[in-house]
Amino acid sequence: GSFECVCAEGYEGDGRDCTDLDECAQGTAGCHAHARCTNIDGGAECVCAEGFAGDGADCRDLDECTDGTHGCDPNAECSNTDGGYTCTCRPGYEGDGRRCADVDECAADSNDCAPQGLCENTLGGFRCRCAPGYQGDGRRCDDIDECTLATDNCSDAALCTNIDGGFECACSAGHVGDGVRCENVDECAADLPVCPAH
Q1: Residue 152 CB contacts under 8 Å (≥ 6 apart), including other chains
Q2: Sheet strands (E) in the chain
Q3: 78 three-state secondary structure
Q4: How many whole angstroms separate alpha carbon 79 and alpha carbon 64?
Q5: Tens-place pLDDT, residues 80-121
Q6: Which of 1, 7, 20, 182 could form a disulfide with 171 if both were Cys (CB 3.0 to 4.6 A apart)?
Q7: CA trace torsion 187, 192, 196, 198 (10° rounding)
Q8: Strand partners, 40
């Protein structure tokens, strides 16, 4: 023979005067730990935080590295983290991971080429080769003895002397020239005092 007033779900009071409950502040909204809770009239709204997917009550981490939604440079490694990711430039590159630039190991003198080697910068690394007159893999270079190997270009009338990284040619006695070309000296025509007067 009477009636009773009861506040609807999401409200509190005596039924005649009902005020909205703040489920977010009270921790009763049922949002996931990785969800953002927003109080609405008569309830709460749960939305998964950035880097997570789901209905708000259940949020799972997104793997931006696998699904290709990361912002890492093509020359960086992507590492998934809880709710995000990190970018790290690969060896041979420098930067913040979102932008990576090639390191010039040759100019920076951060290479292991031999002192007699030549450094050639490449994307993400470098190559070593031996300078002319040396042989090896570029990280170790040994002098080539052009005189012993007969790979010099000295004249047949010259003496070949091996030097570090090359060789020198000197015309033998009785010859003149630069060692590559040697001409016989005609001591008789030059009227040099090599023979007795009679």
Answers
A1: 146, 160, 167, 169
A2: 11-13, 18-20, 35-40, 43-48, 52-54, 59-61, 76-81, 84-89, 93-95, 100-102, 117-122, 125-130, 134-136, 141-143, 158-163, 166-171, 175-177, 182-184
A3: strand
A4: 9
A5: 999 999 999 999 999 999 999 999 999 978 899 999 999 999
A6: 182
A7: 90
A8: 43
**Helices and strands counted in the chain (H then E):** 3, 18
Biggest distance spanned by C-alpha atoms of the chain: 167
* CB half-sphere exposure, 28, CA atoms < 13 A: 9
Contact 45, 32 (CB under 8 A): no
- Read off the amino acid at residue 1: G
DSSP code per residue over 144-162: --HHHHT-----TTEEEEE
In terms of C-beta distances under 8 Å and separation of at least 24 residues, what long-range contacts does 104-113 make, across chains too? 112/139, 113/138, 113/139
Beta bridge partners of 180: none
Asked if 72 and 97 touch (Cβ cutoff 8 Å), the reply is yes
- Identify the three-state secondary structure at position 53: strand
User: Residue 121 forms beta bridges with which residues?
Assistant: 126
Length of the chain: 198
Enclosing H/E stretch for 174: none
**Residue 183 — pLDDT band, cuts 50, 70, 90?**
very high
- Work out the pLDDT band at 186, boundaries 50, 70, 90: confident
